[in-house]
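Hi R.,

Here's the chain you asked about this morning:
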Amino acid sequence: MIENLDESWRELLQEEFEKPYFKTLTDFVKSAYAKELCFPEVTSIFNAFNHCKLDQLKVVIIGQDPYHDVGQANGLSFSVNDGIKHPPSLVNIFKEIEQDLKLPYPKHGNLTPWAHQGVLLLNATLTVKAHQAGSHQKQGWEQFTDAVIKKISAKKSKVVFLLWGGYAKKKKKLIDTNKHFVLESGHPSPLSANRGYWFGNKHFSKTNSLLQQVGDASIDWKLK
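And the predicted structure, written out as tokens:
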């Protein structure tokens, strides 16, 4: 799998690739993709890394699982391919951006432009069986992506981590909060958002404010 991974990330994560769990994980993924429909496409599994170079990394948004319906997943958390209907969580993300930054609701849900500006859109689990949410959990992906978060925390400084919902908030223990910024809120899913745990968090303007404080360029959250 790692032949599709950006070289800078490959160097950072080489130690993980040599561990027994990663070989087991690789064998599982290869077998799963060979016998059943899985998402995203094999060449897109590491898109979160390939579209966000390590030296440009400024923001991390942690998701849980890729979308599991046909045509949705593109390797970036919360993102969908062009022309795909926006899933409910993404709708609420865009609604919050509308309220927070007074930007128009976008026509597409492909978040690749965010990644190109240094936003790592990282799912805890990078693959999934079609139509079965969570079907590739506890196969080793979580150990790998936890290691990614730890290495980012150690290697980088002044990164803004956005932790949305209980699952993502558990990752806070992997982050050195003396070196980095952590913003927490409820999840953008309708269940959480409609209870008042998401809307009004202003994470997008707050992120830009923090980046400006440390001399980094703001993220242009508008999808053109």
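The chain has one domain: 7-214.

Let me know if you need anything else.
M.
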